[in-house]
Amino acid sequence: MKILILLAAAAFYLIVPALVVKLCRRVSFFRKAGAILTLYFLGVLIANLFIFRVDRLGETLFPLQDAMVSVAIPLAIPMILFACDFRHWPAGKALLALLVGIVSVFTVSFLGYQLFGSHLGEQGKAIAGMAVGVYTGGTPNLAAIKMMLGVDEATYVSVNTFDMVVSFLYLVFLLSVGIRLVRKWLPFEALSGPSVPAEDAVVNGAMAQSEQDMYRDIFTKRHFRPTVEALALSIAIVGGSLGLSFLITGKVNMIVLILSLTTLSLAASFIPRVRSWEKSYDAGMYLVLVFSLVVSSMVDLGSIDYRAGAFTFLFIAFVIFASLGLQLLLGKLLKLDADTTVITSVAMINSPLFVPMIADAMKNRKVILTGITAGIIGYAVGNYLGVLMAQIL
Q1: What is the DSSP string of 236-279?
Q2: The model scores a pTM over 0.85
Q3: Residue 45 in domain
Q4: Domain count within the chain
């Protein structure tokens, strides 16, 4: 019975994104919302309202969900990067955006502690330190800072849970209206039309297509073999990156893994044959759709003690959204463009794994490397910054 449930769930996660893509092609409302946002809401609904309720099937489904989340994005990143031309990547602007992001998170976390610290209890300083770590790096930094600062399990679980909820709301905000608002505030150049420089047209050719035109013909005779080759190379790159991670650290280290697979994928993207795989990007983005459905179906809204953790929730919400606000203000002063600012914020708040999703929503694949690089550097500095914040407080 357990095997049948797992097989049914796996089929559900793999097939439903295709159905949602078709729905987005045919129904105007869903086309405007986009496949990713639709899948996020669908995942939360099935996790908390219907047959896949987290509290009923959580123990059975969690190993499958965890495996699919762990595999989908590492496989997707190489396939997405294969199709990108990074010869014109603006490294200086990307690093400036990262510095602005780090300063924003650190400053807002300090201010947030001044506002909510008296309500956060004895662990308040550690919570502020964990917030800096997780919003400049990621969950591995959150866990590491927990151990370094001796945070108790209840506090850690509370922070981690509210982090997932508010981070989800942050993504919904960006995917619904946030990206458009930021593009009105900061400089933004349309990615299609006569004003696009020739080199940008090369980079953004596939991205200029609408979402409803993506994923078509992946399994036709013309594209099937190149897509399988892209998947095979992606598997090889992930395998090599995992081996390198074990060789260097003795375990799966997210910094080493993402840095390795990004470097190898970037190197492969300079090979003309690899860059000619037209549906590599689409296939990689389909894995992102699968990831979106699976990760949102792991959100158990019923397990959250909102009343007891109200001020922790408010503190985390303040750090996430106020840090974005400060980034926008500093970005205006330093003349950063909208998409670089958004993708840097996403890489820090949600981790590099979410970069392809937002880049696709923005129809701008040029910022993918910028986002992933920002996230990798964030992983590297997050622990230092988190402990520094706790010590300052």
Answers
A1: HHHHHHHHHHHHHHSS--HHHHHHHHHHHHHHHTTSHHHHT-TT
A2: no
A3: no
A4: 1
